[in-house]
Write a structure and sequence with these properties.
Layout (H helix, E strand, L loop, with lengths): L14 E5 L13 E6 L5 H9 L8 E5 L4 H12 L5 H21 L4 E8 L14 E8 L4 E2 L5 H7 L8 E2 L5 E5 L1 H4 L6 E2 L10 E8 L5
Parallel strand pairs: 1-2
Antiparallel strand pairs: 2-8, 3-4, 4-10, 5-8, 5-10, 6-7, 6-9
Length: 215
């Protein structure tokens, strides 16, 4: 059973809630909450390991299946990338698997759609709302997802690259649980991936989605 109904008809401005504990993610079930952000402490050893990996050796891949199968698939991603076995690699696998389990528990579906991407271009740079039910994301390397205060959404969607108003950026390792258009309608939080083309930086981005029941 999923944690909440369709909130698109709920009156009032959408809310963003933030906290230092994982339990803040459970607030996504509140009627007016459209984004829950878990601010995590810097994972020091993991941070150094990821920063030292060449961009072409970052573990990337796509997986659809039960959250319980994520650790084995992540090990495969690491093997294919040529990331040598180490305590840091194991910590990375365990951390991503933990987030996958958390998402599965909160979204309530039997399957998840997990993607790890290495991004060195302006992928998804346009301000947008996600056309999904729930989506979890976290940035393991590079700048995090940028999101707008709800009252500035219309202006940013219209202006795009010309927008110069308030803009928030999720810190590295922070976890964002978004309610998309399917559940929040126009109350879904407008956001984008930070433009990085030409900066010499490569992001490592985790995205976890629900799998539609008819897939």
């Amino acid at each position: 059973m999923r944690i909440g109904p369709d909130f698109s008809a709920v009156a009032g401005a959408p809310r963003v809630v933030e906290g230092a504990g994982e339990t803040v993610l459970h607030r996504i079930g509140d009627n007016k909450v459209a984004l829950a952000i878990w601010h995590r402490e810097s994972l020091a050893g993991l941070e150094r390991w990821l920063d030292d990996l060449p961009a072409d050796r970052l573990p990337v891949g796509h997986f659809i299946g039960p959250a319980a199968c994520v650790p084995a698939r992540l090990e495969t991603f690491c093997d294919l990338a040529g990331a040598e076995a180490s305590s840091e690699r194991q910590a990375f696998v365990e951390d991503v698997a933990r987030l996958a389990r958390t998402f599965a528990a909160l979204s309530g579906g039997p399957l998840i759609d997990l993607r790890l991407d290495a991004v060195a271009h302006d992928s998804c740079w346009r301000f947008h709302r996600d056309h999904v039910g729930y989506r979890l994301n976290a940035t393991y390397r590079g700048p995090g997802t940028q999101w707008l205060p709800p009252e500035h959404s219309v202006r940013a969607l219209r202006s795009q690259r010309r927008y110069r108003g308030p803009l928030n950026e999720m810190p590295r390792f922070a976890v964002g649980l978004f309610k998309g258009v399917v559940r929040a309608g126009v109350g879904a939080i407008v956001h984008r991936s930070p433009p990085v083309a030409g900066s010499g930086r490569t992001r490592l981005f985790l995205c976890v989605n629900e799998v539609p029941e008819d897939d």
